[in-house]
Amino acid sequence: MLPPLRIVRYGLRRTTEALAAELAGPGSATPAWSELEWRLATAVAVAHGVSPLLCRCCAWKKPSWRRFLEGQRAHVELRHRRIASLLKRIDADARVAGLAMVPLKGAALHALGIYAPGERPMADIDLLVREEDAAATITLLLDLGYVESFAQWKHRVFKPASGQPFAGLGEHRDTPVNIELHTRIRERLPVSAVDITARIYPREPRPGLNPYLSNGALMAHLLLHTAGNMCGRSLRLLHLHDIARLATHLSANDWDVLWNDNAVEPPWWALPPLRLAARYYPEAVPADVLARLERDCPLLLRAISRRQSLTRVSCSELWLHAFAGIEWSRSVHEAGRYLRNRVSPPDEARKERADMVRTQLWLQGQSWVTAPHRRRVLTWLTQPVPRMDTLYVVRAALEPPVPKASRKLSLVVSR
């Protein structure tokens, strides 16, 4: 049985903001939390992907907390070795096949030395390929023993033909490594797509794995990815930490990549992620970059982003928001499209939801997610509705410890 949800909600908010502050500026005193709050802190650390990072920087004197962090770091380091080995094999096979690929986000940050093995979890491998190379790349993945799990407008997801995800709390070394195949880098904010593929893909790619066009291109991708997650209320503390870590490696020319790709529109979407990163990591983001982005950002979004917190735009906010992300609309017409899609989802959105229910462990067996859409809308508008992903990780954190010999941990959120 869960505690009253109002208590869970308060505990999630309190522990989320405390962990964010400790990760950005280690050295605070051990919190005087209740046992429930310590359990919720483990849920937050897992949901936000920062448990192995906290293992190095957080010195809070709570034995069960230390054991949890140390165990998570060990699993992430072992899993990293599997991912690195798989990337080497993909690189070799792509060279033979004459296919150019760009490993995205976490893999790129590791390749730059931004993170050491065991610091940053990676739920999967993201690969960017040219549209004309997609079919050959799929053949390569099938030869590696992968099968297609589902496809959506952003990417196609492949999973190992054998192996099942573990049910439980946190990272596990044996969790299957999925591969997400992209031919474009884009996000819907909230209904119109922003596409930055031209900023990402190298001008002279070679067969095998290629780096981003520049470190500035990697930052542009991190910011757009974070913007999409903020829009959908699914931000993770790891996203902000990625931005802060990479920001310390950027020159003024790297920041200029946000504007220098001859884009039709300026990077209006970059201000909310950078402003939120600067809230928790005030020394990481140059003030002149923020000032320049303020001129590009729509007035309403600019105003709202001043008041946002990590909890407010992440899964640490327990309640679902019926119209999450509408503030990212840049016109009355776009807001109207968003509202129509919420009330009557298009076929593509319905299929995407069905794929999520079929493939995501935290959605399976939940009557709410399979209820008719009209019923869900009515419930949103009349009463607080808790998030299923948040409840899943909270329940896992509150379960009594199992014997070590039979303990099975796993990822509970996607990145």
Automatic annotation (TrEMBL):
Family matches, as InterPro entries: NTP_transf_5
UniProt xrefs under Pfam families: NTP_transf_5
Protein name, entry field: Nucleotidyltransferase family protein
Source organism: Rhodanobacter denitrificans
